[in-house]
Amino acid sequence: MLALSFLIGVLITLPIASIEFGLTHLLIKLGIGGRLKNFLNAFAIAGIVEEGVKYIAVNLFLRRNRFFDQCYDGIVYAAFISLGFASVENLLYIWRLGFETAIVRAFMSIPAHMLFAVFMGYYFALGFRSDQSKRKKHLLLAFIIPVLLHGLYDFFLFDIQKSPVIYFVLITFLCLSLWRYGLKRIRTLIAFDNERMNDGENREG
After folding, report:
1. Rounded to an integer, what distance in angstroms lies between the CA atom of residue 136 and that of residue 159?
2. Which of 46, 65, 116, 153 has its CA 20 to 30 Å from the CA of residue 147?
3. Mind listing the pLDDT tens digit for each residue in 111-169?
4. Are the C-beta atoms of residues 82 and 117 closer than 8 Å to each other?
5. Which of 181, 180, 159 shows the shortest CA–CA distance to 170?
6. By three-state DSSP, how is residue 68 classified?
7. Which one-letter DSSP state was computed for residue 48?
C-alpha cells in the first residue's frame, strides 16, 4: 500500500505539470510580472494546483482503503503520495538546472512537501473519524492549510531577491514551525490511536 501510494504521487505529476504549464503561460500572456507574479505562482499555481491534485488523490485513496484503520495512517499515506510527487519534481529540476539544485531541494523542498502532507493527512484522518458535524470542517482544512503553507513557503522563495535577509528569516521560521507543529500532530494521532486500542481492549476484557 505504501508503494502504491508513492506510485500515485508519481502519476499525479503529469496532470499537475500540465495545469501549471498552462497557467504559467497564461501569466506570461497577460503580462503579469514582479511581486504579483511571484504571489500567483506561489499560491495559485504551486499551492492550489499541487495541493489540490494531491488532495483529490489522498481523498480517493483513503476513502476506499480498508487498510486505513488507524488515524495515523492518514498522515503516512498522504506523506507517501506527496513524496512520490516531490521525487519526480526533483528529477525534473535536476534535468533542467543541474545536480546542485537537487541537493538544496533535498534539504528544503522535499521535507517541506512531506510536512504539507502531514497537515493534509492529519485533517483527513480527523475528517474520516469524526462525526458528521465536524467532518466537513476537517476535510476543508485538509485542503486550506496545506495550500496556505505551500503558498507561503514558495512565495518567500520566489520573492527572496527583494529582501534576502527578511525572507531568509521568514523561511527559517516557517520551516521550524512546520517541523514543530507537524510532529505535534503526528504525536496527537498516535496518542489517539493508542487510546482507541486501549478502550477496545478494555471492552473486550
Report:
1. 34
2. 65
3. 899 999 999 999 999 999 888 888 999 999 999 999 999 999 999 999 998 899 999 99
4. yes
5. 159
6. coil
7. I
Farthest-apart Cα atoms in the chain, separation: 69
Closest CA to 9 of 116, 167, 104, 108: 116
Show the cell assigned to 118: 502531514
Asked whether 112 and 153 are in contact (CB, 8 A), the reply is yes
Residue 149: exposure state from Cβ atoms within 10 A (0-12, 13-18, ≥19): buried
Predicted TM-score (pTM) of this structure:
0.91
Query: What distance in Å separates the CA atoms of residue 192 and residue 128, rounded to the nearest whole number?
Result: 14
Q: What is the amino acid identity at position 20?
A: E
* 116: number of Cβ within 10 Å: 27
